[in-house]
Amino acid sequence: MDNLRRTDELVDGPNADYMSSTVLERWEERLEDIFQGRPYDTLDAALSNTVFSFSLDIKPFRDIFEGMRMDTRKSRYKSFQELYLYCYYVAGTVGLMSVPVMGIAPESSVSAFRIIRQRCVLQEGDRCMERFHEGVNREGKILYRKILDAIEENDYNNLSKRAYVGRSKKLLSLPLAYTLALPKPGLSIR
Predict the structure, then answer these.
(1) How far apart are CA 139 and CA 32, in angstroms?
(2) Residue 124: which domain range?
(3) pLDDT for 8 beyond 90
(4) pLDDT greater at residue 139 or residue 121
(5) Are residue 82 and residue 127 in the same domain, yes or no?
(6) What integer is the mean pLDDT of 34-62?
């Protein structure tokens, strides 16, 4: 991801005012070289190794350059659709690049193991939070659990189906969230 950070600095960094479309085109050519196994430096070599180790698709990498071009052309968007497209180019692409590295390729099956592991992480977090009160977002954890429930309800298909918590489920969670937010007698912040 260091390569992405370096590339993003072209349009968002301290020298962004001096960035031209030619510079961006050179970086895009460099990306093509990385995917052809011709890295320029050690960071490129690391990305090239990752590309081949995890069979990464070049499309999200190309798309992020479109987001950078959008950065140079405008800072406001006339419609939600334009903003949504921009968000895909500058953030969604990073997710698509990361998914295969995390072992979640589109053709892979999502096992209940990942859900169980995440529930254990949340439960461990609960135990840690018992020691504290102020500044802890217990309410958010309730929603995260509900998102895990939604993933299970979608038969673990979170790549083509969105797992979300509807407004009514959120509202029904408020009493529990409120109860959890109340101070526990005898507990203090250390």
Answers:
(1) 45
(2) 112-181
(3) no
(4) 121
(5) no
(6) 91
Q: Give the confidence band of 190 by pLDDT, cuts at 50, 70, 90.
A: very low
Going by C-alpha positions, the residue among 72, 129, 127, 62 that lies closest to residue 97 is 62
Question: 51 is written with which tokens?
Answer: 């590309």
Q: Report the C-alpha gap between 158 and 40 in whole angstroms.
A: 36
Mean pLDDT of 49-59: 91
Q: Indicate if 83 and 138 belong to the same structural domain.
A: no
Please list, in sequence order, all residues whose beta carbon lies within 8 angstroms of the beta carbon of residue 134, skipping any fewer than 6 positions away.
189
Give the mean pLDDT of 109-117. Answer: 65
Instruction: For CA atoms 164, 151, 57, 37, give the dihedral sign.
Output: positive
Beta carbons of 98 and 50 less than 8 angstroms apart:
no
Residue 93 and residue 63 in contact, taking contact as beta carbons nearer than 8 Å = yes
Mapped onto helix, strand or coil, the DSSP state of residue 121 is helix
Task: Examine the fold and report which residue of 76, 101, 126 is the final residue of a domain before the chain moves on.
Answer: 101
Q: Domain check: are 84 and 34 in the same one?
A: yes
Between CA 175 and CA 40 the distance in angstroms is 57
What is the DSSP track for 75-135? Answer: S--SSHHHHHHHHIIIIIHHHHHHHHHTT--TTSPPPHHHHHHHHHHHHHHHHHHTT--TT
- The confidence score (pLDDT) of residue 135 equals 47
CB contact at 8 A, 146 and 163: no
Model pLDDT, residue 79: 87
pLDDT at 29: 92
> Is the Cβ–Cβ distance between 176 and 142 less than 8 Å?
yes
